Amino acid sequence: MEKFTLEILCQIIGIGSASGLIYQDQSLYIIGDNSGFLYEYQIDLRDLKRHPLLENPKENTPKKEKADFEAITQFQDSLFVFGSGSTDKRNKMIQVNAKSKKVVATNDLTDLYTVMQNFGGVNPEDFNIEGAIYDGENWYILNRGNGISNKNVLFTIAGKNLTNNFQILSNTYKLPKIKGVRSSFTDAILVDNTIYFLATAEDTQSTYDDGEVLGSLIGSIDLKTMKINFTQKISSNHKFEGLTLYAESPEKITFLLCEDNDTEVLETNIYKLTLNKN
């Protein structure tokens, strides 16, 4: 899977540092790691709505205070938004009704994140959740290995809930380097029995401080074997942090991507990435 095209689909004014997105019925649901809102953007109408995820939400939350929403996934009529877990203030999971866009529940995942760290052998300073998937039975949650230990971990979590009744499996991955720097997970989605993921190389050994962006790649993991099928570099200068399925045919698969620009500028580009399947 080497041939691909990458192009801008649209630019959205009013969203900064986009970190996750979901596409459904000509609408995009977008989160930003420095924002307390869930954004709803109707592509055909170019209409942007803001739905609060927190009390007194801000567009540009100071770094020390932000909930750091880095992952979003959907199952049936619920959207689930995850904090990165990289500090004590970033351990929330927000459940949102996908129809009303109202918050249904706010969960503290501190206990889960602690167990994940212990089980996956990830030091607290290297813990940084950047992708989440839910298929109705299992959660697949990705730790971005941009800390000192470079621990890219895919956690599989089963159980009745994520607060006090769960079981965990983990798989660790050594992803390709870009310009000499190891890439690390930034998002993932499930398509049939395949997990497609994004990874970015950033010249930093901190889950808190940003570094120079060296490029991004896409890859996939077989859900049954948990082995990587392929990786493909798609950019030398973008920090892609959001991935959602846009269209699929027997010959091609197309995704939408969003980019974290690590600034307070409230504008973001949505990219369309098309891969040949053969």
Description:
The chain is mostly beta strands and 278 residues long. Helix content is 4%, strand content 55%. The protein is built from one helix and 22 strands. The chain has one helix at 110-120; strands spanning 4-13, 18-24, 27-32, 37-42, 47-52, 69-75, 78-83, 92-97, 103-108, 129-134, 138-143, 152-158, 167-173, 177-178, 181-182, 184-191, 194-203, 212-222, 228-235, 240-248, 252-259, 267-276. The mean pLDDT is 93.
Properties at a glance:
mainly beta, 4-stranded antiparallel beta sheet, 22 strands, 278 residues
Bulk shape: globular
Low-confidence stretches: none
Number of helices: 1
Q: Whole-number average pLDDT?
A: 93
Write the layout of secondary structure elements.
Blueprint: E1 4-13, E2 18-24, E3 27-32, E4 37-42, E5 47-52, E6 69-75, E7 78-83, E8 92-97, E9 103-108, H1 110-120, E10 129-134, E11 138-143, E12 152-158, E13 167-173, E14 177-178, E15 181-182, E16 184-191, E17 194-203, E18 212-222, E19 228-235, E20 240-248, E21 252-259, E22 267-276
Antiparallel strand pairs: 1-22, 2-3, 3-4, 4-5, 6-7, 7-8, 8-9, 10-11, 11-12, 12-13, 14-15, 16-17, 17-18, 18-19, 20-21, 21-22
